[in-house]
Amino acid sequence: MLEAGKSILLILSALFPIVNPLGGSPIFLSLTRHYPAAARRALARQVAVNSFFLLVASFLIGTHILNFFGISIPVVQVGGGLVVISNGWAMLKQKEEPDRDRDVQKKMHPKDIFRNAFYPLTLPLTVGPGSISIAITLGANLPRHLGANLLAILATVIGSAIVAISIYLCYGFADRLAAIVGESGMSIILRLSSFLLLCIGVQIMWNGVSALFRTLHIAGM
Q1: Which helix (H) or strand (E) holds 18?
Q2: 27, 91 in Cβ contact below 8 A?
Q3: Model's pTM, two decimal places?
Q4: Per-residue pLDDT tens for 174-202?
Q5: CA-CA distance, 120 to 116, in Å (whole number)?
Q6: What percent of the chain shows pLDDT beyond 70?
């Protein structure tokens, strides 16, 4: 069990800074700010559940999926980075039209609220290419003999569940943060978060491009 505890701490220390649910909560709130509180929390719960299964799948079968399609992690980083850049730029450039947005979202059918639960709220805004690549890398190093492998799988499930719970708490109660900082404060936080999201996308893409260039350099040698 000591090894399982170490694995859980390793998973949490690797994923929390990348997933960063607290930093993503202003973005989530900006996309759902006129939803009723109950609907926002239900959506946050769905995002948390999606994130849990996505992380567990990345840990356990991510390497096999990439190998099956012949995709490398740097390519995932480049593609995912482009998606994150696109979302960050769109959020950074969007104009605030609260009255019209409120009218539109009040008319939404409850089922429509969950339409964006997986994309883009789960992937790539919450569990993006950075966290997926880390999960795949950690999963590739899982022990292969039965006893240790079962403990590693248990640690993976527990670690991913803790991350998912933190996502739900930060997203589901993001309106409490808005009440504390106020309307203008949330607008500032949103713009800063959008810019940071754009920068994160550039960094993720650059990591992938750099790895691909190193591969070309080694092949050329």
Answers
A1: helix 2-19
A2: yes
A3: 0.79
A4: 988 878 877 777 778 778 877 887 887 88
A5: 6
A6: 87
